[in-house]
Amino acid sequence: ILLSNAKDALANKKDDKKVTLMLEKKDKFAIIRVTDNAGGIKDEIMDKIFEPYFTTKYKSHGTGLGLYMSKLIVERMNGKINVKNRNTGVEFDVRIPIFEDGK
Question: How wide is the angle at C-alpha 99 spanned by C-alphas 101 and 23, nearest 5°?
Answer without folding.
Answer: 125
